[in-house]
Amino acid sequence: MSKSDTLSTSRVDPATASTIDSNEVTLSEPRKDANDVIDPPKRNVLRSITIVAACTGTMILNVSASTSVSMAIPNIASELHFPSDKVAWIVSAFSLSSGCLLLLFGRLADLYGRKLVWLFGAAWIVATSIACSFTRTDTQLIILRAMHGMGVAAMVPAAVGILAHSFPPGRARSTAFATFSAGAPLGGAIGMVFGGVMAQYASWKGVFYFIAGMAAVIGVAGLFGMDPDPKRTASSSKDHSVDWPGAFLVTAGLVLLTFALSEASETGWGKPLIISFLVIGILLLILFLLWEHYVVTHFSSPPLVSLDIWTRDHGRFGAMQAVAFLEWACFTTLTFWAILYYQNYVRLDPIHTMIRFLPMPVTGVLINVVVALTVGAVNGAYLLALGTAATSTAALLFALINPDAQYWAYGFPAAILCVFGADFVFACGSLFIAKIAHPKEQSVAGALFQTVQMLGTSFGLAITTIAQAGGMKSESEALDLDISNDATALEVPPPVLLKGYRLAQWASFAFGVCGLIVVVLFLHGIGIVGSKKGKGVVAPEEAQPSRQEPIDEKVEESKEKPELSTA
């Protein structure tokens, strides 16, 4: 179809909509059918505030469930007799399951009800948090922490879909998503404070009671405050099928890939098992993409993720995912290596290290206030460019840091600047994705955005670890030192440590600069993501159909396709 062709929205049938290039068509009215409830029910201000608070609480819970447990790791490892090579799995098991199951739960939320899946996630977190407090062995806790992460995987994409459905494009949606984004720095601060207090003055079990109580309060607020899910109809049964083979391929692929990257960042690439998992994980993800294409072309049932979503708005959706990947590879690694710099090189205790990062949550909250005020009037590309440039500058400061200088010269400005990118990219990216995603795929689109961030974190840690190891090796050779691979950070000479940390930060800086380049080259035309009107096209699948007027024989061909599966 050429751009000169004229389409009447009254003659576009859903069966043939998938064959039309979304970059070639601009349609003014979104589709309304049994599956897509465009207009949210009317509600009072208090209920709207409750919805935003519950969804923001989801993000707070997501981050604090990780940071609070991290503060209690020494106590947990001591009481449960954790081997040194398993301690990291107290946090990694949670992150692995919560990240790799996002797409599956995002799809389930879009199909069976976002509020239903969200409430399931909240109840699941309450149950598994309490169960974690009763564990007696290291293996039990690791398994339960993996189950713990499933609850977050259910809640986060459902919350994104709930916000997108509850607030139409405009100032209210911008404020809602900015508040939602502010939950991340708030969760980090709350997790560090309460986790540290519980671990020091009560017990590590109190950390899990705290998480369970938080999930219960948030769940009750959502139960009574969120709008009910739309009722399913008999005519929508075909659209409510689950692509289980695709779900298996993408989940297994993400688990193996993330596990390989995480292990490589801790133990190096020398183990054959890590290489095997990496290769198998990549192959499974390639098979997932091929399978999704096969589902679209041979079945009438929808795929887990529509591959055309990557090319929406002239490829800007894919570019936004690339920016998120690179930004999280920069942000998470620069903070990771900065923490190790303070603890292992400067030799600060955890409390004094935490104090040096206190500007981060404060700045993060303020940034999201700025987002709420400006995202409806400022081109999103400017905010993204400012954010990626600021985070890159923070990494550069740590790469050039002078250990003899005061904290205010390098550490303080870096702590302020590093959160600009994460908060601007998350807030603007979430609004942009909610703007161009179809109403029936809001949760899975949000889950895809979160999954890319998780992969960026794992990939960034693996690459910066290689840089750090290379820096330490070159410096030890220059000083004619023979350092064992099993040496702890306290046994490594300070100049060798500093060289490794600096090279790791240079790698983080490279990720940030690459993200800035993607913004400048591919997202300069993104427009105002927080406004009702934007430059992004409306996908043809959202066209107002006329079910009485079939277009041609393509309709009949599509009806003959078998369904993949029906839940």
Automatic annotation (TrEMBL):
Mind telling me which GO cellular component terms the entry cites? membrane
Domain of life here? Eukaryota
Under Gene Ontology molecular function, one entry of this record is:
transmembrane transporter activity
Please give the organism.
Answer: Serendipita vermifera MAFF 305830
Q: Which SUPFAM superfamilies match?
A: MFS general substrate transporter (SSF103473)
Q: Transmembrane region positions? A: 45-67, 87-105, 117-136, 142-164, 176-201, 207-224, 244-261, 273-291, 322-342, 354-375, 382-401, 407-433, 445-467, 503-523
Q: How does it sit in the membrane?
A: Multi-pass membrane protein
Q: Where is the composition biased (Basic and acidic residues)?
A: 29-39, 549-567
> What is this protein's record name?
Major facilitator superfamily (MFS) profile domain-containing protein
